[in-house]
Design the sequence.
């Protein structure tokens, strides 16, 4: 996992010890570390519109927001975030059209336990606004995320 | 409720605890679904697995309501009896394309039936479900309970894009019961699914001819007035998964669909299923559901989304894990995976155009 990622350890929400029916998914989310929340900002590379779980693959933007993060090997650092099915996230405005390559956004996720750059989305996605004059995304300040940029758009939730 | 000296969450070998499986305390009164979710819900506690939480020992759905109320030992016997009843009334009823009941439409499960859906694994003690299974299938279910609840190693069908399997039509999460129904005089077709497609076709007036098991069986049927009666056989044995049970390829069902009217207008179908599986079940089992017609096929916006289950989950050290593009086993389904194979094995060292990030991304910092 990228050490520059902002990691916040949050307490696990304990459900009532009753016969609760949780939100259903196509696979268990036990592979994700639900005690950790990682907040990342990046540029969409590919929207994967899978029926069962849609994904956005993205290139991580460096914490100083002046370029893309690169690993020790000089390669760009890429992440993926898993969400609900493509039809469900489309209802939230999250589609291949709204997340074209180059769309800058921030997302919170539970990362994979094995440390790979992939996670399960938590809550809303914040899209950075686009400057109408330059047609380029307005980036957040260093160590901040798209929710801090005036004119941002929240998708799939009301708070980031 | 007094805990047992040892249970699923303290066991080193659940096979040796067979005498305790009939006691709900062995599972700490967790329902099958709670065991499936015990790690992801946080109910496993701070010192897994021994710190696993207890469920509600007072909740259960009675075994006598799960077992079939009918006297028939086999699906054939049941089907023949229903056919005899129809013949006694001058049937079976034969429709034409013009006269076949107009049930076409989009259906959804009636939520008021949720408190009787024992196949969902949410309303029963594990021990009650085990009580309707044969010893071999009890063992298989407890094995699943142990590896999901204790080892946190779930093996859900959709994780790996395994087939759903016939009985998953009756699971909660499969959405099998939220179907598109189309019908004519020869065939009644149910199409549904969420992680994989369920295609069930009732062949009116036909007989079973398949020689090998089918994932969703082979279904024949007839009409008795406005009641559709079906018999499914030739089912591939599989699993309900999610800490429930497996079923064998001996499984057969008799199902009936009866129209429901409200003020004279057709509004839905009452469905009853009897599950006959002498290999897996100690007695035939029984389940009812109402399906409400939410829209006709003339609805302008409803679509059936055909599901291609694509997954990069693979077992790593016995547990499902999401592979990323960095893994050799990762398949980029939307990125010309066939070309990736050629490039990896047959184009090594070639002088060719280099891939970089898409220009739209590189432009951000220009």
Sequence:
């Amino acid at each position: 996992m990228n050490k520059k990622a902002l990691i916040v350890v949050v307490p696990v929400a304990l459900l009532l010890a009753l016969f609760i029916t949780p939100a259903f998914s196509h696979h268990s989310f036990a592979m994700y570390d639900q005690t950790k929340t990682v907040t990342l900002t990046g540029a969409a590379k590919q929207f994967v519109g899978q029926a069962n779980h849609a994904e956005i693959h993205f290139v991580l933007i460096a914490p100083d927001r002046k370029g893309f993060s690169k690993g020790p090997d000089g390669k760009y650092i890429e992440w993926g975030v898993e969400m609900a099915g493509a039809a469900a996230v489309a209802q939230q405005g999250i589609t291949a059209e709204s997340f074209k390559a180059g769309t800058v956004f921030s997302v919170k996720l539970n990362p994979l336990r094995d440390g790979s750059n992939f996670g399960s989305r938590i809550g809303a996605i914040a899209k950075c606004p686009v400057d109408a004059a330059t047609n380029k995304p307005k980036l957040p300040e260093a160590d901040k995320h798209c929710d801090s940029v005036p004119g941002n758009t929240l998708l799939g939730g009301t708070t980031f | 409720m007094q805990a047992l000296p040892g249970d699923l969450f303290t066991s080193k070998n659940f096979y040796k605890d067979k005498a305790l499986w009939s006691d709900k305390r062995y599972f700490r009164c967790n329902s099958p679904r709670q065991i499936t979710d015990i790690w992801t819900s946080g109910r496993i506690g701070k010192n897994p697995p021994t710190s696993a939480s207890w469920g509600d020992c007072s909740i259960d759905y009675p075994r006598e309501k799960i077992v079939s109320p009918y006297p028939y030992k086999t699906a054939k016997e049941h089907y023949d009896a229903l056919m005899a009843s129809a013949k006694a009334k001058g049937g079976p009823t034969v429709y034409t394309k013009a006269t076949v009941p107009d049930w076409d439409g989009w259906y959804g499960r009636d939520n008021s039936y949720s408190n009787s859906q024992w196949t969902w694994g949410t309303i029963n003690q594990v021990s009650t479900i085990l009580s309707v299974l044969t010893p071999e299938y009890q063992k298989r279910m407890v094995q699943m309970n142990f590896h999901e609840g204790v080892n946190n190693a779930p093996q859900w069908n959709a994780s790996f894009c395994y087939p759903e399997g016939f009985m998953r039509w009756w699971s909660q999460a499969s959405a099998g019961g939220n179907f598109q129904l189309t019908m004519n005089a020869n065939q009644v077709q149910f199409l549904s699914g969420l992680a994989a497609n369920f295609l069930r076709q009732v062949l009116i007036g036909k007989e079973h001819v398949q020689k090998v098991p089918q994932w969703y069986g082979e279904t024949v049927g007839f009409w008795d007035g406005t009641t559709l009666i079906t018999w499914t056989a030739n089912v591939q044995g599989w699993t309900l998964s999610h800490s429930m049970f497996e079923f064998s390829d001996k499984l057969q069902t008799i199902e009936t669909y009866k129209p429901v009217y409200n003020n004279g207008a057709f509004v839905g179908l009452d469905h009853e299923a009897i599950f006959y599986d002498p290999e897996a079940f100690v007695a035939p089992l029984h389940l009812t559901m109402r399906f409400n017609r939410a829209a006709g096929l003339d609805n302008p916006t409803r679509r059936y989304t055909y599901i291609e289950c694509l997954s990069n989950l693979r077992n790593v050290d016995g547990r499902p894990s999401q592979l990323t593009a960095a893994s050799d086993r990762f398949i980029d389904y939307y990125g010309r995976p066939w070309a990736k194979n050629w490039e990896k094995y047959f184009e090594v060292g070639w002088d060719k155009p280099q891939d970089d990030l898409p220009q739209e991304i590189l432009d951000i910092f220009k």
Notes: The first strand of chain B starts at residue 105 and ends at 109. Chain B touches chain A through 54 residues (CB under 8 Å). The CA atoms of residues 189 and 201 of chain B lie 4 Å apart. The longest helix of chain B spans residues 135-149.
